[in-house]
Amino acid sequence: MTSIDGCHPSSQVTRRGEECRQRGFGFAVDILKREDANACLSMFERYEERLGGKPLSGDDRFKLHLLLPWVWALVHNERIVQLACRSLNTVDVWCWSSDVNVKERRSDAYFPWHQDSTYAGISPVHTAVTVWLALTPSNEASGCLQCIPNSQGRQLEHVEGHVQDSSNALSKQQEIVDFPDTIHPGQAVSMILEAGQASVHDFWTVHSSRPNTSEHRRVGLALRFVSAHAHKTGCRESATLVSGNGHGLFDEEIAPTEELGQAERQRHKQAMAKEKSNYLPDGVRSLTVKSHYCLGEQPEATAVLFIDLLISGLHADVSNPFRAQQYVNSLM
Questions:
Q1: What SS3 class is residue 82?
Q2: Among 176, 257, 287, 326, which is most exposed with the fewest C-beta within 10 angstroms?
């Protein structure tokens, strides 16, 4: 693999990246010194205070690298970029998004079994990863991520609102209800991290996290990286090129110079509007579904077919991307 900024990936980064490609995840990668992680946590708490000191919600959680210079720096952190490149097996990499995940002490909030790929509109498989950076210790007591080995082979059906539960922290309360015989939740691995360490998982890896039963907050940054050789459906979005050639996959983003500055807020607002337009908000009347027909083993041989469906008049389940795909397949 080509070096990044003249530096070859460390053996630890190399191993974890290879683990991600082989079984869908890797963890306990040393990224920041403890004092640097504490400094990032302090800057995050300052961000919370500037927004009123209440739990963050909505757009305030996402694409923080456009609002906060210190998050922009983390997105470009050499070891994080190397981990993303090694996991994606390419030096051409974008940072698509960055979001903060907080579980308050003694919180009931949890993330059910799901895949990050479900609403991303990114293909083919294995062209996107999440690097999760812990700013506080993330362990079983505080509700660390759990990944199922070798579960990243394909997109699984997600059911929205299967059980009405306000503690479900996913935006659409989506979750995997029926598992194929090859995927066993009982084999899940807890990705335990110290502050300053990171994990990486494939967008198609099935994962979850339990409530925080500890007396300390669990705070982490989820950085979403996409190969420049991927395909992205829907409204054209913006992203930050962190390595190599972007191949025009996204509109390139601008670094923030002032924390929560007026220009930064405006660019963030525009970027979030584009991103949200691709996530099938309530009331949307049409749906673009992508169907892949692989002509051989090479991703480059994938033919992509776009079909516009009018949801009105069709079975309600077609509003679910997986059901829509099944409907399209039935027409072929």
A1: helix
A2: 257
Backbone angles phi, psi at 229, to 5 degrees: -95, 5
Q: What total of structural domains would you count in the chain?
A: 2
Q: What is the pLDDT of residues 236-287, one digit of tens each?
A: 999 999 999 999 999 999 999 999 999 999 999 999 999 998 874 443 333 3
166 pLDDT higher than 90 = no
Strands 251-252, 238-243: pairing kind: parallel
Neighbours of 169 (CB within 10 A): 19
75 in Cβ contact with 212 (< 8 Å): no
- What would the two tokens of residue 257 be? 């110079």
Residues 60 and 172 placed together within one structural domain of the fold: yes
Whether residue 104 is found in the same domain as residue 169: yes
How many CB atoms sit inside 10 A of residue 326's CB? Answer: 14
HEC string of 43-73 equals HHHHHHHHCCCCCCCHHHHECHHHCCHHHHH
DSSP code, position 9: P
**CATH number of the structural domain spanning residue 193:** 2.60.120.620
Residue 37 domain-assigned? Answer: yes
**Among the listed residues 200, 211, 219, 156, the one whose alpha carbon sits nearest the alpha carbon of residue 182:** 156
Whether residues 258 and 129 share a domain: the answer is: yes
Cα–Cα dist 246/97, whole Å: 15
Q: 137: cis peptide before it, omega within 30°?
A: no
- CA pair distance 18, 200, nearest whole angstrom: 11
pLDDT in tens, 58-72: 999 999 999 999 999
Distance of CA 103 to the CA centre of its chain: 17
Round to whole Å and give the CA distance between 222 and 200.
9
Report pLDDT for 316: 33
Report if residue 57 sits inside a domain: yes
